[in-house]
Write a structure and sequence with these properties.
The complex is a heterodimer of chains A (140) and B (485).
Chain A lengths: L1 E3 H14 L5 E7 L4 E8 L11 E4 L1 H13 L3 E10 L7 H5 L6 E8 L2 E10 L6 E4 L2 E3 L3
Chain B lengths: L1 E4 L12 E3 L5 H11 L2 H6 L10 E5 L2 E2 L15 E6 L1 E4 L8 H5 L5 H6 L1 H4 L5 H10 L1 E5 L5 H11 L3 E5 L24 H12 L4 E5 L8 H5 L4 E4 L4 H14 L3 E7 L2 E7 L7 H4 L12 H4 L3 H20 L8 E6 L4 E6 L23 H4 L13 E2 L1 H10 L3 E5 L3 H6 L6 E2 L17 E5 L5 H11 L6 E4 L2 H5 L12
Parallel strand pairs in B: 1-5, 7-8, 7-10, 8-9, 10-11, 15-19, 16-17, 16-18, 18-19
Antiparallel strand pairs in B: 1-2, 3-4, 3-5, 11-12, 12-13, 13-14
Helix pairs in contact in B: 7-8, 7-13
Classes of the chains: A alpha/beta (140), B alpha/beta (485).
């Protein structure tokens, strides 16, 4: 996956700002180039006492967001969420909700600092979850 | 009618955003979609034909994902929305691996027995399986061990090992609710085994009737998931924590004294250990143990129950826990607070450059001041018989009792002057340097500390220790009552 370094920096800041809650949203860019150029933060709809450990996106909010994104001729490449004080590895819950072919970015935020970012994909061909390499590209 | 396919799900439908189908309800619409796009079947449904967890079906703003809502009639104007369910969470972080959890199964009786756990979303079948797979060592089957062992057994912990070298005594029954009157003089581990069997016969119970030392503790705890420190002395606490660090096992610590209790979780996920929190033990004898200082009966129940609760949360992988924190509870004035504990980079065992790499590196008796002190000026002492003879002879001596008030209430030492250790230096003028002064305490250890304190303060008169303390003295029978007076 390619990502503009400016986008990555803003994402890291978002992860810090959301701490100690889980931040979450959509990764936006150009699907053909496998390039992430931006993201849209969405509200964590988990019960208030669960927002430190869980995130849920309201499907209707995703629906609204994707109409806007398509209006700008951009694509949704996947989703991101943060893991406050935990490693950037998929939890069982994360795996359960994975849509094949979409990218899942996890940002590990430990004590308020973004420590690790990893991206995973469930392959469409066989359903196996693999880690995807992140390549930063200079902002144009 | 139209079916809108979310951008996130379009790969199943040749990237189409809108599809038109002839249908009167959601079920028919889904059937039509699968007919037109056979590949979508695998994407939308699992092997059992259930809709996959990551899909939500809406009509307008109404969630119609549940199957019983698929038959609600729709009109041609309605639009079905196929949307993604995006959710997740931090890894649960249980100390029991998924593989071990998956290897566990339940019979009907167990489903009934643990029903109240299964009802909880945070525990459920997965959590209960982790509990059953867990292998836990409880060190000490005394006051704290009592609630810990019983709750772990009741909660369904699969393997419980209990370590205690002691026998049950009558005075234990005030707080050690694991044991009953008929257990007096039996090994505590035998009594613990009976209690656990009475709760649940399926629990694998392992008894270790040994006194833990540096050369045997590793064999006792290695390979277990969790160690619960229910011991009552500093040597055991350092030994347990150090062994847990070296074996890589997290530890739930608990301690009680009079009306106050402490709980913490050590050596969990690179958190601090007992030695980080308490780098050195207090001088031997300065702080009485729970056995010497006493404790109110239910305090062990409160602290031990919190220990068991922490243990279960670590096993299940839920909630917050006391790693890096020390919970302090004052049961007399009902106050509690949580103090932060930091990992010490210079910790002797879990720091960056540890000086202790094997338990054999350290003499725990010496570290905790339990060895007969080899000091420059050794402390002279009397045996109980020698002291008794001097009292009977009416020799001019001064006896100083350094015990706590409640200890004196149990057994008074007649004609002794009471001076707490903390006041000795200040009150040394009350002593007559021309007379032999004999210090007494319960076991003859705090009295040595008292003598050294006084010497450091510059007192030059003759000082003696009662060897073995009042415990050793109580069997002495005087030839006449007047000897005491």
């Amino acid at each position: 996956m390619l990502i503009r370094n400016k986008t990555l920096n803003v994402l890291k800041q978002m992860a810090k700002d959301a701490y100690p809650k889980e931040g979450c949203g959509l990764l936006i860019g150009e699907a053909e180039k496998f390039l992430v150029t931006g993201f849209q933060e969405l509200e964590n709809a988990a019960a208030p006492d669960m927002t430190g450990r869980h995130f849920i996106l309201d499907p209707l909010k995703v629906y609204e967001a994707e109409k806007e994104i398509e209006g700008e001729k951009l694509d949704i490449l996947g989703f991101y969420h943060t893991h406050p004080d935990h490693k950037a590895i998929l939890s069982e819950e994360d795996r359960f909700y994975m849509i094949p072919g979409m990218l899942y970015m996890i940002l590990s935020v430990v004590k308020g600092k973004c420590r690790d970012i990893r991206v995973y994909e469930k392959r469409e061909s066989d359903g196996i979850v693999t880690e995807i390499l992140i390549l930063e590209v200079a902002s144009s | 009618m139209n079916v809108y396919i979310s951008a996130t799900l379009r790969s199943f439908f040749d990237r189409n955003a809108k599809l038109e189908v002839e249908a009167e309800n959601i079920r028919q619409a889904l059937d039509e979609l699968v007919k037109a796009y056979p590949d979508a079947k695998k994407g939308l449904f699992d092997e059992e034909g259930k809709l996959r967890g990551f899909i939500r079906i809406y009509v307008g703003s109404e969630n119609r994902t549940a199957q019983d809502r698929w038959v609600i009639p729709l009109t041609k104007k309605d639009e079905i929305l196929l949307l993604p369910a995006i959710a997740g969470g931090v890894p649960e972080g249980s100390i029991i691996s998924d593989d071990r959890r998956k290897a566990v199964s339940f019979d009907d009786k167990e489903i009934e027995r643990f029903g109240k756990h299964l009802l909880l979303r945070e525990i459920g079948v997965k959590g209960q399986k982790r509990i059953k797979a867990a292998r836990v060592v409880v060190i000490g089957a005394g006051a704290l061990g009592s609630p810990v062992i019983q709750y772990l057994a009741a909660a369904g912990v699969g393997t419980i090992k209990v370590v205690d070298f002691d026998d049950v005594s009558l005075e234990n029954l005030q707080s050690q609710v694991l044991h009953s009157s008929r257990d007096v003089n039996r090994p505590k581990v035998a009594s613990a085994r009976d209690s656990v069997r009475n709760i649940n016969r399926n629990i694998e119970f392992e008894a270790e009737n040994v006194l833990l030392e540096a050369d045997n503790i590793t064999d006792v705890i290695d390979g277990y998931d969790l160690v619960i420190d229910c011991s009552d002395n500093y040597k055991a606490r350092y030994l347990i924590s150090d062994a847990c660090v070296l074996c890589g096992i997290p530890e739930v610590f608990g301690a009680i004294y009079q009306f106050e209790g402490q709980v913490s979780v050590f050596n969990y996920n690179d958190g601090p250990c007992y030695r980080c929190a308490f780098p050195t033990p207090p001088p031997a004898g300065l702080v009485p143990t729970c056995a010497e200082g006493g404790a109110i009966s239910p305090l062990a129940g409160i602290i031990g129950s919190i220990q068991a609760n922490e243990a279960l949360k670590l096993i299940i992988g839920i909630g917050d826990h006391l790693s890096g924190k020390l919970l302090v509870i004052d049961s007399l004035y009902l106050r509690s607070q949580i103090l932060n504990l930091n990992k010490r980079e210079d910790c002797e065992i879990c720091g960056k450059h540890p000086s202790i790499t094997e338990l054999a590196d350290l003499d725990y008796d010496e570290f905790c001041g339990l060895k007969e002190a080899e000091e420059e000026t050794p402390v002279e002492g009397f045996t109980p018989d020698e002291l008794a003879k001097r009292i009977e002879n009416g020799d001019p001596i001064t006896i100083i009792d350094v015990r706590e008030p409640h200890e004196r209430a149990i057994m008074r030492f007649p004609n002794a002057i009471v001076i707490p250790i903390g006041q000795l230096a200040r009150r040394q003028k009350e002593l007559d340097p021309g007379k032999d002064t004999i210090f007494v305490c319960r076991e003859g250890k705090r009295s040595i500390l008292a003598i050294n304190t006084l010497r450091e303060a510059g007192y030059t008169g003759p000082l003696y220790n009662l060897k073995g303390g009042i415990e050793a003295m109580k069997d002495i029978i005087f030839s006449h009552e007047g000897a005491w007076l």
